[in-house]
Amino acid sequence: MPPHPLFVREARGAHVWDLDGDRYVDYVMAWGPLVLGHGDPRVLSAVSEVATRMQVVGTGHPLEYLAAEAVLEAVPHGERLLWSNTGTEAVQVALRLARAATGRRRVLKFAKSYHGWHDTVYAGMSEDDCDRPATPGGPGQSASVLDDLVVARFNDVRLAERLLSEAVERDIAAVLVDPVMSNAGVEAPSPLFLSTLRTLCDRHGVVLVFDEVIAGFRIARGGAAEKYGVLPDLSVFGKAMAGGFTQSAVVGRADLVDQVTSGVVHAGTFNANPIALAAVAATMRVLADPAVHEQLEEISSEFEALVGAVLGSSADFGSLNRVGSLLQYVPAGGATGLHGTSGLWRAILEGMLRQGFLFMPSGKVFLSTAHTSADVEATAEALDRLLRQL
Q1: What SS3 state is found at 322?
Q2: Residue 171 falls in which region: left (phi positive, over 0), alpha (psi -120 to 50) or beta
Q3: What is the C-alpha to C-alpha distance for residues 71 and 63, in angstroms, rounded to an integer?
Q4: Is residue 159 a contact partner of residue 177, using CB atoms and an 8 Å limit?
Q5: Rounded to whole angstroms, how far apart are CA atoms 108 and 175?
Q6: How are strands ordered across the β-sheet holding 364-366?
Q7: Strand 207-212 relative to strand 234-237: parallel, antiparallel, unpaired?
Q8: Taking Cα atoms as reference points, which of 278, 247, 282 lies closest to residue 51?
Q9: CB neighbours of 360 closer than 8 A, spacing ≥ 6?
Q10: How far apart are CA 366 and CA 162, in angstroms?
């Protein structure tokens, strides 16, 4: 992480302390999971209680269904759930379910959208990759599996209509979409985009999969389906659902998920380990209180207003995109990037770190219920000082 890796010895609430004992206001939040902040006592107490009884057992245990019920209660389209560990794994499970159900093999994704590091989906990472053969996103990937990938453009309804009208000929099993382009500028869907995808998938026998690893349970208790009123066939969740522990899930239609009882392979030693599921159950209990997302919205709106005002003092400083408690710095010219954003962001990243504020190279900003107005006000003041010097 530029300008240099930060090594942390302690983290509490909205703050981390480095090896020298310097404190930072943390807007990385472990790259998204810590929607309740570091060390939330409600999560840690649940985990500690379970850890004294069992760690990983290789058998069934009550938290498998208690945590699942807590998630399914929140998700509008939740009929069944499969546990996994990471977002990358869960995306692969969802695509396997779609292929098994349709008898097709290809997946339509959207340019710039990140769905994990796996060879089959880490491609089409440039806006220029639309509607042409996909190429590997990095060295060491198998190019042969990318014949299964079709790349469209987010919010381009006409292109989606054309590609999906050829779903049978193209052998398209699934549409895989991040509803808010969490890793590609936090771009919100246009009013008709998600609903059009839903209609097209129904018409052409394609499984609609929402990748909500980042957005899920952060932008709304019920994720994108609640916020935008469009129900996918499957959603992939992770990060925020476990309040800082490693867990993911595939949630959705019973007939799709139940395929694992009739031949579709889904495996993993740690998939439903008691430690992580204790964290899921505790986190979902907290998020069931409407006041929690109201608090997230208030602090995120305040960040957008105060920090956005500082950026807005000059056309050269850039701006902010926001969907709930997920924000993105957008430089003048609009070029954001998964691994690093251009424009002034590098200078802002380094200058804010020196003043005690920790941000991500991509320019994404994660807020939590642990952040306070004082944190946000101090951030805006520090950014104002920095920009006056640039």
Answers
A1: strand
A2: left
A3: 12
A4: no
A5: 5
A6: 319-323, 326-330, 364-366
A7: parallel
A8: 278
A9: 1, 27, 28, 31
A10: 36
User: How many residues are listed for the chain in this entry?
Assistant: 390
β-strand pairing of 15-18 with 23-26: antiparallel
Q: ω before 3 within 30° of 0 (cis)?
A: yes
Give the model confidence (pLDDT) of 310-355 as tens digits: 999 999 999 999 999 999 999 998 788 888 888 899 999 999 999 9
Strands (E), 68-117: 80-84, 106-110
260 and 299 Cβ atoms separated by less than 8 Å: no
Amino acid making up residue 211: D
- The tokens describing 137, both together, are 């996103």
Angle at the Cα of 228 from the Cα atoms of 227 and 231, rounded to 5 degrees: 105
Give the model confidence (pLDDT) of 51-62 as tens digits.
Answer: 999 999 999 999
Whether the predicted model's global pTM rises above the 0.90 cut: yes
Residue 238 DSSP class: -
C-alpha torsion 110→111→115→121, nearest 10: 90
CA proximity to 327, closest of 181, 124, 228: 181
CA 117 – CA 87 distance, rounded (Å)? 10
Q: How far apart are CA 158 and CA 190, in angstroms?
A: 13
For residue 221, CA distances in Å to 160, 226, 251, 322 come to: 28, 8, 14, 17
Q: CA torsion angle for 15, 185, 224, 327 (degrees, to 10)?
A: 30
Distance between CA atoms of 65 and 77, rounded to whole angstroms? Answer: 17
Supply 188's token pair.
Answer: 């919100």
- Amino acid at site 233: D
